[in-house]
Amino acid sequence: MDSQLNTQTSHDWWPSPAKLNLFLHILGRYENGYHQLQSLFQMLDYGDKLAFDITEDSAICMATPLAGVDDDDNLIIKAARLLAKHTQCKKGVSITLDKCLPMGGGIGGGSSNAATTLVALNHLWKTGLNEDELAELGLVLGADVPIFVRGRTAFAGGVGEEITPAPQKELYFLVANPNVHVSTAEVFTAPELPRNTPAIAWEDYKFEKTRNDCQQLVENRYPEVAKLLQWLVNYAPSRMTGTGACVFATFSDYTLAEQVRAKMPEAWQSFVAKGVNRSPLLDKLEQQK
After folding, report:
1. Rounded CA gap, 167 and 162, in Å?
2. pLDDT tens across 88-103, in order?
3. Fewer CB within 10 Å: N-end or C-end of the chain?
4. Is-catalytic flag, 99?
């Protein structure tokens, strides 16, 4: 998994790992319009990387701006500003992003970037928040951010904020991107979305007894997602993650996953990663202490 570390090595990189939703059930809808969900968030040992150059002025900026994304709309900048305001920190930072996860793919790129920013700057700025406080702050930025702050494979309920650590056997995943952008809002407002799946206890989770309630709808509207899933399922149990568009296949063996990846049509971007119960972000933080 170190192939992505061959870029500028002078930086002190902080990992911003991807996640998969191994399943996603929609139980119902709250009065405020939010959906009641159940999901299993699987951390991966692969993702983006961020570096933070601390400054003594209060300016917060991207050294590597994202094409087409204004700094004010960038979750990384929002996370840094939120932490600075919440803790009344007067320091600044110039942030470098080494991006390899697709945007809008359902594998947590933006949310993970925000969480890494909170965790790293809390340490580097010495703002002193604990994990619970950082997770609570992360929820302001997005429902998935606390999962990445806590950094453990976890079962989630409610709108995603009820988190229970749920260690899994560490398998390998071939993750592929069909190169379409699926709008999460479009999926969750669709009238044909199932909203009545019975709740399960996290201890009863089995991949083959669960599903992604968004998958059929997305397959119907985005033929490229359906095509990719039909291709993958010939080789291994496969599913869409989150509201898409990325999909994954599950393997117990790294070599086998890479062999299937080698056969994949070049139109689809893909990578193989290991599912880990502890995020590489937590390991990095531990090394800093």
Report:
1. 16
2. 999 999 999 999 998 7
3. C
4. no
